[in-house]
Amino acid sequence: MERYDAVVIGAGHNGLTCACYLAKAGLRVKVLERRAAVGGAAASAEFHPGFRNSVAAYTVSLLQAKVIRDLRLSEHGLRIVERPLANFLPLENGYLKVGGGLQATQRELARFSARDAERLPHYWAVLGRVADALRELALQCPPNVGGGFIDLLRALKAGRLLKALDMEARRDFLFFFTRSAGELLEQWFESEGIRAAFGFDAVVGNYASPYHAGTAYVLLHHSFGEVNGKRGVWGHAIGGMGAISEALAAEARRHGVDIECNARVVRVAQGTVLLEDERKITARAVVANVNPKLLYLELVDRSSLPPEFVARMQRYKCASASFRMNVALSALPRFACHPEPGPHHASGIIMAPSLAYMDCAYLDARQDGISRSPIVEMVIQSTLDDTLAPRGAHVASLFCQHFAPEADWSLRKQEAVERIFDVIESHAPGFRASLIAYSALSPADLERDFGLVGGDIFHGALTLDQLWSARPLLGYADYRAPLDGLYLCGSGAHPGGGVTGAPGHNCAREVLRDLGRRFPG
Ligand SMILES: Cc1cc2nc3c(=O)[nH]c(=O)nc-3n(C[C@H](O)[C@H](O)[C@H](O)COP(=O)(O)OP(=O)(O)OC[C@H]3O[C@@H](n4cnc5c(N)ncnc54)[C@H](O)[C@@H]3O)c2cc1C
């Protein structure tokens, strides 16, 4: 039987982050990964000879600057570049560009509404203030409801943070956590294009209409990041998202972490994990990077958990309705509304011109499993990174919503692909003719290939009942499981999904506290 101080189940970026901090503190750490490569949803791969791209996650912002610094990711070769333009939206009568600075965006908005252009700085200031508070909370352990003295201190710390906000900012905070993105954006702006540009973040990975309560939070969740010190900006990791995981794995190995791929864990008990090949590994701390539903309902013997905990876990909500494609292209798409090449090709190209369009996409998926006109974001990574495609050719990621997780994906995958291509072709005639190859992941593929239950890209919906002190469940928000020595370090723990490194960072701190070690961060 192999023995370690800590064993981490899953080499997703959070598992690797956690392993790095544990090993830096002097623990002997083993990481077990089911797949053939590290990274989980933050990985890169060749999907057609000569064409590589990020496999699942495709754009970076939420990765915590502290994690990048502490774990020397730049020294391990990680390079993140900013997009020249945040977003480009083909619209019915023209297009909208967002980004490239406040004044440039205001000039763009003024073509549709002088009032919207005028209101933009105020909107960004409000969003920025609330996002700043969220950013600070991201690296703190939430107070456990019903916990002890330390949880009281954590509650006071969080309270102090909110107290530092003025009353208006507190009201905004409450609004973002409870209201819909539709309400938020319709209050601020009158033109459809800008509402759609900002509303897209509210339905990314979120099986909801932008008019559903709680979607304003998902929009906010996508705003607490930064790229190279610039807040709220999204960028590209050279080599794809796998470069982040590779850098984390390099740092982990530097500290002696033993990372084993093709090593599927089939059972977890107190201080022990059992592998598919029947090997047993014991450790003082067992740290799970997997979706909480997978951990508590499939890996841990349910009879060792409180029955009410198991019942709640069965109701833990996982559902994203996301469909992910990579395409290899012989040429850049020519958008009918803006045919010439330009910075818009290096932006997040959102093909969803209004909140009403997004609402329809949701209602269609609810009714028929697949949106008639899906919401498509295209990012052409090869415009920012020449390591991904042969010279003159391109790769793009397509991140598409809404595709019901419960639809029969063994029968309907090709239908989904065709609808996505139809949307792109309608904006960029000739797109289909430029296709060299593509790969496609349905919600069922995301579950099968990555362990993302219900295809949920965040390891659990980002709804108020599953956030902060309630993630994954009220009473278990401090990364500790109801089984001694078992911890959760994945996106099912605070602060939730996205390539952040935050749950891995925070969980390591709690493991080390229990083992009487100093946190090296
Ligand atoms: C299609 C898609 C697009 C996304 N786009 C973005 C984006 O652009 N930007 C962004 O910031 N976020 C994005 N996200 C979200 C983000 O990628 C995830 O929330 C995040 O990567 C999850 O990281 P994690 O380490 O918590 O878990 P995971 O990456 O899910 O890692 C868990 C690991 O555990 C392994 N595992 C599971 N079961 C076992 C077992 N029994 N034994 C051993 N190992 C096991 C899995 O194989 C996996 O490697 C996207 C996600 C998806 C799916």
If you had to describe this structure to a student in words, what would you say it looks like?
This protein is α/β, with parallel strands linked by helices and 521 residues long. The chain folds into 3 domains: 2-46 and 58-81 and 237-316 and 456-514, FAD/NAD(P)-binding domain; 84-233, no CATH class; 322-450, Guanine Nucleotide Dissociation Inhibitor, domain 2, CATH 3.30.519. It has helices spanning 13-24, 65-70, 102-110, 114-138, 149-163, 167-178, 181-188, 192-203, 215-221, 242-254, 292-299, 307-314, 355-368, 409-427, 443-450, 502-514, and strands at 2-9, 29-32, 44-48, 51-54, 80-82, 87-91, 94-98, 226-227, 230-231, 235-237, 258-260, 265-269, 272-275, 280-288, 322-329, 348-351, 370-379, 394-403, 435-441, 486-488. Strands 1, 2, 11, 12, 13, 14 and 20 form a 7-stranded mixed sheet that branches. Strands 7-6-16-17-18-15-19 form a 7-stranded mixed sheet, sandwiched between helices. Strands 3-4 form a two-stranded antiparallel sheet. The two termini are 32 Å apart. The model has no long low-confidence stretch (mean pLDDT 97). The protein binds flavin-adenine dinucleotide. The site of flavin-adenine dinucleotide has 39 residues, from helix 1, strand 15 and helix 15. Flavin-adenine dinucleotide (FAD) binds at residues 9-15, 32-35, 40-42, 56-59, 62, 264-265, 289-290, 294, 322, 324, 399, 446, 450-452, 457-459, 490-491, 497-499.
